[in-house]
Amino acid sequence: MINRLVEQIKAKKAPVVVGLDPMLSYIPEHILKKAYAEFGETLEGAGEAVWQYNKGIVDQIYDLVPAVKPQIAMYEQFGIPGLIAFVKTVDYCKSKGLVVIGDVKRGDIGSTSAAYASAHLGNVTVGANTFGAFNEDFATVNPYLGTDGIKPFVDVCKKEKKGIFVLVKTSNPSSGEFQDRLVDGRPLYELVGEKVNEWGSDCMGDDYSYVGAVVGATYPEMGKVLRKVMPKAYILVPGYGAQGGKAADLKPYFNEDGLGAIVNSSRGIIAAYKQEKYARFGAEHYDEASRQATIDMIEDIASIF
Amino acid sequence: MINRLVEQIKAKKAPVVVGLDPMLSYIPEHILKKAYAEFGETLEGAGEAVWQYNKGIVDQIYDLVPAVKPQIAMYEQFGIPGLIAFVKTVDYCKSKGLVVIGDVKRGDIGSTSAAYASAHLGNVTVGANTFGAFNEDFATVNPYLGTDGIKPFVDVCKKEKKGIFVLVKTSNPSSGEFQDRLVDGRPLYELVGEKVNEWGSDCMGDDYSYVGAVVGATYPEMGKVLRKVMPKAYILVPGYGAQGGKAADLKPYFNEDGLGAIVNSSRGIIAAYKQEKYARFGAEHYDEASRQATIDMIEDIASIF
User: Fold this and answer.
1) Which H or E element spans position B119?
2) Average of pLDDT values for B46-74?
3) 3-state DSSP call for residue B162?
4) Which of B26, B32, B146, B164 is a Cys-bridge partner for A177, taking CB atoms 3.0 to 4.6 Å apart?
5) Among the residues of chain A, which ranges form H helices?
6) Residue A245: pLDDT above 80?
7) What is the crossing angle of helices A147-160 and A188-200, to 10°?
8) Residue-wise DSSP of B166-216
């Protein structure tokens, strides 16, 4: 799957992923109204609204970008109907040829981590049959529990040719509280980066590993160091746009081949119509606003090369 | 909710939580057969089997223990039908008066962490209505992202009088890879423990905080230190039984009042009938084997006081 991600990035000339992190406050009135008319102001109504909203955006961006990254928390808050919308979104994006990165930040140990890996990347056996539950192509994973937590994911990645992005240095202001603490004179995130390298070393695609890393756009100096620590890891970069990361800061995340990183934007694209810059589209054409914002982002990122 | 947990622990004289972490391989043939007959060898069939299996156990243990801890990964692997079984289990346990600790190990930042907190402990607003999606009483949370990741959970805990257990020192063999690394001469888990103390300080029940901690039974020396670092945090202790933790090792996790810790056992109780010790019950009476194993565990833990 890392090979397909790289191919798609090359083909679309866009190291960009669109974060499908819907909030009800982003969803235009006409979509909410229709969903509530059908299902009421219920979790089912919310799930339907989220799904229709996503579908509109995906239809406008699938030809522009290689990948999408649905954030499962935004679906999980609506319970079972929300997760049904998540499944529909994943399936629809895949039918449109998009690589799907499930931003699930799961992490546990042993058989429990194996169950998460089965849920999101692999299959589960029931009697004589096997089923994939959520069927993403990649998942994000939390490293705090160490190798025991990551290994079951790596095993599934090998078997299914899927991938993970391990949280190394996150984009948020307090990410340094633990991640930046010095261990033998070096920040913890570097040690995690070294482990990412190690976990990914026997799990390689053509040029990059199935095991990638998350490094926030908001810490470019650290991105530069981590790029060297993990030369074969694809870096998923959140924090561009709404969180303050700028294109000029992103160069260090890429390798000299112009590959090695993929930059996420969520709110900046899916709720573009709410920005002054794209207000001309109006809520009715929120999906076209998202398309324009995607085009602009791809151009912005391209400007650094 | 921390007050209710403490009350229940006192009333039942059992600082014990039963981990409802069902694997299909634990579920007796008669339950599987019935579920597959009705729903086929499908995710729905698996979900039904898991739910019936859980119900049998809960009916046998609800009068003995204060709390249960369903591990969501074990349900998530069966997709939507698995999560429906999770919801049924949570609701049923609550109807039986049990405190429900959702072992979800979620953790993200800002609005995303807020969405997880809403999903598991709080409510979500849809139009004029509010709904709780999963409705656990407590949730486990991963601290790697720092205060930004925890604060939204703490806010919901305050509002809804719910609680969290933050992963501090996990029970698995490789937990030391990052958690034990020395920062300014002290292990990282101690710094996380101090933060737990800080996060929980303005979020107190009568004697203990809404913000607790996870510290594995397999590291009693560390448990001793962490007990002192976080005097007001309830400690959720996994790793007893199947993972090798012994009752004699658990004393340091408790305060002098005999409170302050609650010990989990999953496989050792829910799959007790598979152990030689309880084989006499047979698969047909797996639930009674679980009851006996629970009684034995409570006695074992009581022996340390």
Assistant:
1) helix B110-120
2) 98
3) coil
4) B146
5) 2-12, 29-39, 43-61, 73-76, 79-95, 110-120, 147-160, 176-179, 188-200, 220-229, 267-270, 286-302
6) no
7) 30
8) EEEE-SSGGGHHHHT-EETTEEHHHHHHHHHHHHHTTSB-SSSBSEEEEE-
Residue A221 burial (CB count, 10 A): 9
Helix or strand or coil: residue A99?
strand
**AA identity, residue A273:** Y
Predicted-complex ipTM score: 0.97
pLDDT at A120: 98
Minimal CA–CA distance to B85: which of A88, A102, A133? Answer: A133
Q: Do B77 and A119 touch (CB under 8 A)?
A: yes
B145 inside 8 A of chain A by CB: yes
The widest CA-to-CA distance across chain B, in whole angstroms, is 60
How far apart, in whole angstroms, are the C-alpha atoms of residue B168 and residue B240? 17
Q: Which residues of A touch B83 (CB under 8 A)?
A: 80, 83
* Cross-strand pairs, A126: A129
Rg (CA), chain B: 19
Q: What's the DSSP call for residue A84?
A: H
Instruction: Look at residue B246 in the predicted model and tell me its pLDDT.
Output: 84
Short-list B247, B257, B199, B198, CA closest to B223: B247
- Is the pLDDT at B51 greater than 90, yes or no? yes
Answer yes or no: are the C-beta atoms of B188 and B177 closer than 8 Å: no
User: Do residues B168 and B214 touch, judged by C-beta distance below 8 A?
Assistant: yes
Q: For chain A, which residues make up each domain, given as ranges? A: 2-302
Any idea which residue has 């289990």 for tokens? B89
Inter-helix orientation angle B79-95/B43-61, to 10° = 20
Per-residue pLDDT at A90: 98
Bridge partners for A215 per DSSP: A169
Q: Among this protein's residues, is B105 annotated catalytic?
A: yes
* A54-81 pLDDT, tens digit each: 999 999 999 999 999 999 999 999 999 9
Topology (CATH level 3) of domain B2-302 = TIM Barrel (3.20.20)
Residues A83, B83: C-beta atoms closer than 8 Å: yes
The tens digit of pLDDT for each residue in B74-110 reads 999 999 999 999 999 999 999 999 999 999 999 999 9
- Write out pLDDT tens, residues A198-234: 999 989 999 999 999 999 999 999 999 999 999 999 9
Q: Is A185 on the interface with B (CB under 8 A)?
A: no
